[in-house]
Predict the 3D structure of the following.
Amino acid sequence: MKIECTINRTAHTLNVNSNKPLNMILSEDIGSQIRVSQCDGRLCGNCVVLLNQQAVLSCLIPAFLIKNKEILTFEGFRKTRFFNDIERAYNDTNIHPCSHCFESKTLILEELLQQFFSQDKIDESTIGEETIVREMRLNRCSCLEAHEIIAIFNAAVSYRRKRRVRRY
Amino acid sequence: MYEGIRSPTVHTPKSLSDLSVALKRSTNPTIFAGGTYIMSTPGYYPKEGEQDIIYLGGISEINRITRNDRYIEFGAGVTLQRLLTVGKQVLPSLLTEAIESTSTTIVRRQITIGGTLCISHHRLLICAVLAALDAEVEIRSFKGSGTPLARWIPIKDLYKRNGELKLAELSKDKNILSSIRISLGKETFSTFIVADDVMRNREEAVILALRCTYDQSVITSFRMCLVFPTSLFLIPQEISTYINGLPVPLSTSQIERIVSLVTERISANTDSSSPVIQTERARRAIEASLHALNAQGLSER
Ligand SMILES: Cc1cc2nc3c(=O)[nH]c(=O)nc-3n(C[C@H](O)[C@H](O)[C@H](O)COP(=O)(O)OP(=O)(O)OC[C@H]3O[C@@H](n4cnc5c(N)ncnc54)[C@H](O)[C@@H]3O)c2cc1C
């Protein structure tokens, strides 16, 4: 199946099986150093990417659903200004996810920040501390404690608030 | 990389009539809703002999939510996250809480309500909750020519006692689950308990959902559903018959009687391979929820 999509701001025309999972496409068909985990159904939460700016587990997205979509992996995301907010939050709090889950946890944090700042956000209570910790647990790595996740999130919120920019 | 493996043809119907055409064109297609179950099956890719895929995401008729005075109806293609955002004000709290406890926003944006009901071999929380709420599902049959036949059935008729889909392999039979309907009756007490991680320890997990109404302290419309994800889907009618009409709070001996009735039903409906831990967890879950019912009843006096 021929699929056109944008990966990390570069247009690609891929010739892949229609049911091939996105995490495998990223590792095998792009020809760059994109690192995404291959969990084969173990749901480790280590393969998060942004698909049209929303976080997804790339192992759950088949090729036919990325047609004409924009994919941003961590490698692409780290080049945006938005990564700086999260990076500074890590540095300020001196709390970093481990190297195993760093990429995915960072992208889930970005998703949470977007939800927090989105205009059509339901209400702030839906993104309270419990929600934040729960959402982060999609990534099964237990390197961060709940209070550490909250500290990073709050620091990132204050940087993002200052920035007041909504788009990439 | 995987030469020789056929790339499945993907059909993306936009309406039920397009779906009918797609179903006629393909033999044993994979019905793809949110894909979270399909894609997380170990060994999903690469696999030989892949069938056509029919993607339900574009069918407008099964992506609607409607409501009138008596019930709320939602299409099978509605995602759990959309149900939460659109239907939160009108859905029974039992259902919204169950949805909120299912995975995270990122995955709920992908899981469809139809997909949660149509996994062939095991039952999870949303099935139990919808059964406790006495939901009905609409099945559309696309067999033969002409317009598809639609019929509503109670959700309990969708499953065997061991939890397997009764309309075996719904999609393979050219049957599609198209809508779900819940009546908006009064519900004074509802709860669910999930013991253990249903995704990682299905063989030992237990799910209990129950709801009832009490009017001037007398219990009516009691309904419970007990699930062992891989081996039991139980809606014990005689428990409802026993409890309906009893006053809140239930006495200790009444609670003991209910627990022993359920235990009897469990052993009558499971084979000896079901772990003892599940029966024990079921007993405790029932006790805990009946005590919660008592506590709520007493606090409202
Ligand atoms: C990361 C992760 C976390 C999860 N956490 C939880 C959890 O906490 N609690 C929980 O209960 N579950 C959980 N699940 C399981 C989840 O509920 C199932 O994967 C989901 O219900 C499947 O829905 P879907 O829309 O993705 O269905 P699909 O994967 O598309 O389909 C599932 C099955 O149903 C069939 N089907 C789908 N729709 C229809 C239809 N309308 N008519 C006929 N057949 C149909 C398909 O052919 C397939 O056999 C989790 C899954 C993942 C991946």
